[in-house]
Write a structure and sequence with these properties.
Residues 250-308 form the PucR C-terminal helix-turn-helix domain. This protein is α+β, with helices and mostly antiparallel strands. The protein has helices at 29-69, 73-85, 110-124, 151-166, 184-199, 216-226, 228-231, 237-244, 248-259, 264-271, 275-289, 296-311; strands spanning 3-9, 14-21, 94-100, 129-134, 139-145, 172-174, 179-180, 207-209. 54% of the residues lie in helices and 13% in strands. The longest helix has 41 residues, at 29-69. It starts with a strand and ends in an 11-residue tail after the last helix.
């Protein structure tokens, strides 16, 4: 059936299209003018609504930024009281915090993209959670709920929404187990550290859960206090030498061997290596580090050095290097 398409757009944004069905096959000049006027009116309505949404979003973001910066209990309680007046949170709510870097590929207003992400999150779950986003790099997501709902479910929801909104699967750090909303600043710190660990491949999944990262958490706190630039001095010289020689194959072999507690069978299976090849590499590693790989203290020092090297940005394992 014949139809007329009228683009609905402002100077900076395209909202969509207004389609006019023309049963008679043609539209008079007066009819075209009416259609264009209707498109302009619709644009004005949507533009005003968009401006109102952005203003409200800006006010909410200001409150949320104060919340994640409120270290003192009194300050946090005061911010929560303001959130309550806006029906954004209740004093007994709990919160989970997520952080990720959206990347610079998309030429989209980060605030608009953040708002779209929040709307997608809200549509993907029931009303037991309220979702808030803070635009930027990293982008911050807060999941607010009336009770301690499953953290794994929230993590899966966030991962799917980020993938759908940004067309990518960036590493995501989360504070893990829900915290009282007055401890949102703690959750923000934990999710920031978890993101750092996720970006160096410390977690086994896309979303690195701070409460499940084990000994990596201690190293993350050390790295933050000590500074990445100074971590270089703490790395075993044998590990530094292998990094400088670009022997990622030996580094990955060592890391896998240590993670498996020195079990040759499990290491060879995980790396898809013949045992003779693995033994050859272990001999090379023994020479490189100048120590006995069967010694517990040596193993601990080497594992610690490999992880410190990751935190310092010296080494990032590539799963294709076997």
């Amino acid at each position: 059936m014949p139809r007329l398409c009228v683009p609905v757009r402002s100077a900076s944004e395209r909202f969509g299209y207004l389609w006019i069905i023309v049963p008679d096959g043609s539209l008079s000049e007066h009819g075209r003018q009416l259609a264009e006027r209707a498109g302009a009116d619709l644009r004005d309505v949507l533009d005003r609504r968009n401006a109102a949404l952005r203003a409200e979003e800006s006010a909410q973001q200001g409150l949320l930024m104060r919340l994640i910066a409120a270290e003192e209990p009194g300050q946090a309680a005061a911010v929560v009281a303001e959130l309550q007046t806006r029906a954004m949170a209740e004093p007994h709510d709990v919160v989970q915090v997520f952080r990720f870097r959206p990347g610079a590929a998309a030429k989209v207003d980060p605030v608009d993209r953040s708002l779209a992400l929040r709307l997608r999150l809200a549509a993907a779950t029931d009303r037991t959670r309220r979702w808030y986003t803070l635009a930027g790099s990293p982008t911050t997501i807060l999941a607010v709920a009336g009770s301690a709902a499953g953290s794994a479910t929230a993590a899966e929801t966030v991962a799917q929404a980020v993938r759908a909104s940004y067309g990518a699967r960036p590493p995501i750090g989360t504070s893990g187990a829900p915290l009282p909303i007055t401890q949102a600043a703690l959750g923000f710190r934990q999710s920031s550290l978890a993101l750092t660990l996720a970006e160096i491949g410390a977690g086994s999944t896309q979303v690195a859960d701070w409460s499940a990262l084990g000994s990596w958490r201690t190293l993350a706190l050390l790295g933050k206090a000590y500074g990445p630039d100074r971590l270089h001095d703490l790395v075993h010289p044998g590990i530094v030498g292998l990094i400088e020689q670009r022997r990622d194959d030996l580094l990955r072999t060592l890391e896998t061997y240590l993670a498996n507690g020195g079990d040759v069978r499990r290491t060879s299976e995980e790396l898809f290596l013949h045992r003779s090849t693995l033994y050859y590499r272990l001999e090379k590693l023994t020479e490189a580090v100048g120590g006995d790989l069967s010694d517990g203290e040596t193993r601990f020092e080497l594992m610690l050095s490999l992880r410190l090297a990751r935190l310092a940005g010296l080494y990032h394992p590539d799963s294709t290097d076997v």
